[in-house]
Amino acid sequence: MFDILVIRGIIAMFLIAIVAATIGSFSVFRGSTFFVSGIAHGALAGAALGIFISLSFFPADPLIVAIIFSVFVALAIGYASYKKEDVDIAIGVMFAFSMSIAVLFLSMIREYASVAWGLIIGDVLLLSEEDINILLISVITLLIVFIIFYRKMLYVIFDPESAEANGVHVLLYESLLYVLIAVGVVALLKCVGAILVYALLVVPAAASRRIFQGMATTIAGAFIISLVSGLGGIWLSMYLNVAPSSLAGLIAASIYAVTLTKK
Amino acid sequence: MNSIELKNLTVRYREGIAIENINLEIQHPSFVTIMGPNGAGKTTLLKAIMGMVPYEGEIKIMGKNPKEGKRVIGYLPQRERINTNVPVTVKDVVLMPLVSNVRGVKKEHVKKAKEVLKMVNMIDYWNRRFDALSGGQQQRVLFARTLVTDPDILILDEPFSATDVKTKTSLIHLLHSFKNEKTILIVIHDINPLVECTDYVLLLKKKVLGFGMVKDVINEENMERLYGTRVPVIRTPETCYVVGGDRHV
Question: Which of the four CATH numbers 1.20.120.450, 3.40.50.12230, 1.10.10.10, 1.10.3470.10 does domain A4-258 have?
Fold first, then answer.
């Protein structure tokens, strides 16, 4: 039978696939995939800040501070974008800001720095029951909010001017999307790590967009590609004895490469 | 009744004044063509009318402020600003102004969407991906979307950009058919295809340089004031054409 850690890994990959299909797809459609990477680094800064606060002032959960800091980074990028700043530049600035904060606090908490790094370098086969519970609650919350608001978010990322003319609050819905991406990224960090969050959120949606026609099928396609990549990574890791997340990233990238051959 | 009333309308950006002291009364229904050089404030004027940019002065849409009044407006922005990364179908695009967060899509919405797509001859593309369409087809779909809410006022920002003669002709015929029921504000660089349906021309260069009927406003003196260079105008007994544009489509 499967080891409990493998079962948790499989559950995590299902949940990651849900985030990839929804939040990941919308970040690809919005054309701000680098945003995912920026948020992941914001999480490192937040975790380091959380540990520093705990050591210096009062107890603070690094994960919670990481989520708050990432949401702040997300909203700052969203506001700059709304103010007609190039979104790539806004992400770059916040990326630099986050890394500066991260390095600053990591140098101040030297002996505990590994705790902060541990939050963004995850392993899907080392998840505790608590990790799975946090991931489950995060994903269910994200999914509910996404299902309620995705139509307006879609209108805003497709044609913000027309949406605004039709009375849709563009800043509100763009900010909501950015916050959802931020929470999704931080929730997944512990499972697959910062770099592979990028791979598993962005690549399945990018590949699915090249294969399928409509919105629903593209989202469903992103779910399947992400799931196949994740489960494939776990399965192969049992034989090859290497990290499952890296194999999942390679499978997803290979699927994307195959879709490039489609006319 | 006036569909649009502007009193001392001024819009300032960080870079400077975009439009200044615009006073205008547009009757309902009427067809108004807005002309001006690049940077004249044409798009800013349209956005101000819909309350999308901060402004000074007073704006009334069907007697209401822009926030309330813009519900009766159908707006077609410039197509270049659409994000074609989004894998939406023609159906999705046309339904966008109608769907709400909780209720989603209703049967009558679908019926209305099909109706407006028939008007622009795009009903056969119902389930086709928007980004796979040609520029002209995309423009027709976007035009259908402006009609889906049954607006009293249509605001169209360069609706014929990247359209071929066939698309342009069919869109002009469609606009002509709304002439007696809607107020139409259209920003366009070349007025010639629209001289027959235009009731009033607005010449805009940050300020209003002229507003009136085609034969009264389109003349060489006004064109030179507007564009800063000599632009020949051909006059016929009924109307006039600007040389350099499309004579007719």
Answer: 1.10.3470.10
